[in-house]
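Hi team, as promised in this morning's meeting, here are the two structures we talked about. I've kept the exact order from the run log so nobody has to guess. The first one is mostly here for context; it's the second one we should focus on when we meet again. Sequence first, then the predicted structure tokens.
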Amino acid sequence: MARQRPRWRRAALTLTLTLTLTIGLAALQPQPLAAATAAAEAPATADPVNTGSFRLGTVRILGVPAITVASPALDAGGDSGPEASERARVIEGNLSQLYEPRNPCTAGERVGEALLDRLSLKGTKATCDPNHLGLQGAPEALRVVLLRQPGGSRQLVAQVPGRSSPFPLLTVTEQDAAFNGLPADVLAEQWRGLLERRLRSARGVFGKEQINGRLQIALLSLAGLALLMALAVALWRFSQRALPRLQRRRAERPGRFDPLLLQLTQAVSRLLTALVILLGVAMGAVLLLAWPGQIPAAIDVLLQPLVVLLKALLLLVVAMVLRGLVGLLLSQWASHLAVSAEHRARRRQRYLSLLRVLRRLVNLACLLLFALWTVLGIPVLRDLSSNAVLASGAVLGALALVFQGLLRDFVAGLVLLLDDRYAIGDVVEIGGRSGEVVDVGVLSTELRCADQRVVVVPNSHCEQVVNHTKLRSGAEVTLLLPRSISDLAGALGLIGEELAAFGSDPHWAPKLLEPPRLLGIEAMTEHDLQVKALLITEAGQQGPARRELLGRLVQRLQ
């Protein structure tokens, strides 16, 4: 195993990464949109509007925030009105009636209306007309005016030609005025001018000329992006075909600039891959821009690769910090002086297995967190209803049933590591297969047999494990003596002398934990007597010691 870094350097690296992660999280922490809270409790006779905090709701036109309405978060008694979010939804619905054509009928109802109209049943066409409320028209014809209600409330309404009564939009409340820090009349006048300008602009966006112009620009942009993508794909394929040739030339006739050229080609291939992905995202954003009111969504799509990259970099830093902390803690655990030297050696052997698996778990957790964070960042998926979330939970439950074998292997792998059944370097027997443990994963264990075959055993199948090298090892040496031997006591004496000589050998004595023991005659067959001796060695030394002792015994008995 490679020499490890000094502990102080690892601790300094971990501390530096932790500080970097903390600063990054602080920089990415979103600022609150608005806050209007009271710092101390007011007397019971105080104005209830000025106590407590406000709930906020954002009103959007074409997806772009226009105004923010407020409602008291704490009910001070009496009817405090609807919540701010509910008010915002109602106001958005009222505003959209003035610029977004909506047909109240389904496709079948529209076909039925057309058939009735062909049968000369006049007067039915207004039902399925997108302008059935008389709110559509030219942008300049729209006016937003302020009306004072008998109770003193201030209401913003829309006046359009062809409609005798104004269309109500919203009511400016005292909570709105208190939150914005303006008198109600001033706030109502500001909102009136802002909504009138934004509604006129929104009407123009839904005009046929602007829609046709955007479609033409979108088609031209898509054609240009498609040509760039085709060129990038062609260059990527050329670089992929060039990589094997450069690798072969480097292996056969290495030149001076071949390594640099190979690395440059690999870098260009990766950049082209990223360019193809970015061009695909840009094409999706162009398609969104072609439809009215999708400018914020298109901007979100364009920024999504940058946001995903920032998330990936942040989680990469998190993974590095956690991996460093895991290595530091395991190093301290492996070198703890409170345990015996024998168990400390075992901990050092387990260190590599635990380090591999825990680092893999850290990588897996960060990868799952990155996937979840990325999916939740998609605007369409972020705004899913609770029913969709419950449906996704049901799908995950079904997947858990389908892949319950993998889950069982995962849990069994954690149990095996914590229970210290084996570690990398141990010689074990699992399910009739014997070999050296070369890798311990979260799902399976790899064994390399004596004939160098690699056997992959699922962790859930490792219920019964025979470990030949945990803390210490042992081996039985079996000798076959002829049953007709005349001097059995003399033969056993020679075997005992050879065992004592082997135990005092300067080369083998340090590897023996106990002197070799003669167990005596263990069995008798028709022709032979089985005599056994026991060796107890350091972990992993039982095989060479057994073969050496057996060779010496054969020579001695001859």
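And here is the second protein, the one for discussion:
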Amino acid sequence: MLTNPAARYRSFAPVQISERAWPDRQLTSPPVWLSTDLRDGNQALAQPMSIAQKQRLFKLLVDIGFKEIEVGFPSASQTEFDFVRQLIEQDLIPDDVTIQVLTQSRESLIRRTFEAVKGAKQAIVHIYNATAPHFRRIVFNKTQAETVELATAAAQLIKDLADAQPETDWRFQYSPEVFTSTELAFAKEICDAVVEIWQPPAGLAVADRKAIINLPASVEVSLPNVFADQVEWMHRHLKWRDRITLSVHNHNDRGTATAAAELGQLAGADRVEGCLFGNGERTGNVDLVTLAMNFYTQGIHPGLDFSEMDAIADVVKDCTQLPIHPRHPYVGELVHTAFSGSHQDAIRKGFAVQDPNGIWEVPYLPMDPADIGRSYEAVVRVNSQSGKGGMAFLLERDYGLALPRGLQIEFGQAVQQAMDAHSSQDQATEMSSAKLWQLFRQTYGIETTVKQQYLRHRLEPMEEEAARTGAESQHIQVWLQDSGETYSLEGTGNGPIAAFIDALALPIHVIAFEERSLTRGEGAEAIAYVQLQETTSGQIQYGVGIHHNIVTASLLAVLSAIHRLNQNGELTLEIPLLNGDSVTGQTAIAT
């Protein structure tokens, strides 16, 4: 790179315009959309589309809702010509769709173009010639007057050829190519001269037979606000403005095509040309998907249907053989995905309170992925950068686990340890919800073998005790199995868990207990969360139990917590044999 780029490159001069209006305007309705995927998009491909691919993409554009589609440059090749003929001869163009064809301002190419569109119900013939000073000087060696003559001769020819084919409803479009680098006064002069020849009738709506003046940022050379100034200047000064549909065609050389196209509409443009997902020459045309969805997320329907975004993307990728970046706005694989722990936590909380019929307010998600046919499966993905919120979101969404906050923190540490272990072994560090569920079950001993296996229990109310003390009291007998032998424990308390803790006779007490329904309907499962503290060491651990019976789930949760406490300490049980004989064993709850 040059240390002094000013020696090689000139900054773009600002447009001198007083009391510009566009900064105070607001977009309240979408523009007329024109897709140029089959022309500008196609000519930008290393391997242009076949006729079959173009027909498939044309059908997609119609299904999305485009009413104006630039179908090709029929004078450029036989394939382009044949494709246009097939659309017309096979009656593939709906009555409410107008095809557009592009041609340079040369007589032979214009005549060939009219041959291609002969018999169409309605068509737009789009002529152009380069108007920027360096193009006039370097490429064509023409003066301003000669450049105007080229454009007006072409304008007269297409008018004459259209008059000779009255069966078609014709519209005309002119583009001063490289408008962004053209002197504004000259751009106005040449556009006025062209429209003077066409003499469009007055009093027509935007989409009727107005002349179309298209202002192409063939090469993006300035800030978006400068482009807006250029468009507003033309909007103010064009002679036939009330008979013109003012169009913009933005390229993305500076990476600001979307902003430029939006500001161009504020500045007076009625119509936008572009491609799906930003295909086109060099850095591409303006991305019509992004523009349309920008309207949608502001509460304005764009008039285009992207409710099956993934299917649309698949067709475009297949026809163009171009990938779509995973961070591409709205459609990329990862644009609705959060890996960051703080983002995940905010998203989880947002989903928890989001009114299904209310204004969308989920943090970090500017739109509901379901609106474009996306599921919520990819919204949160867990890796080494994630926190408790992401893990909790996946387990709740896919397995119905609403984890208490303390358990989220505790299990989050287990997840992080597993992630770190994989990372140290150069293994993939993303954890799916299925892997999280597997780790959760392993961590909390769900359906795994621990030394004391629960078999069954019997719970009875102690009516005499309740009558004496005035407090509800229950007696429990729990049968466990250890090393093939069956044992029973008995205890009393003001509930099943208290009675079981009494039966265990361990230095533990309950800090927190929650129970929830895990599934619905007949045979629904319950899940119990118990947080125990070992009184001698102060160590705290959660336990989890799942069972169709909520009392059984609670007892399993206690055993799970004891098992986890014992991983860092020694807990013993005095277990009476089932036959009534009593033994004392140093029996640890262990795997």
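Starting points for discussion:
The CA atoms of residues 224 and 260 lie 4 Å apart.
The two ends are 65 Å apart (CA to CA).
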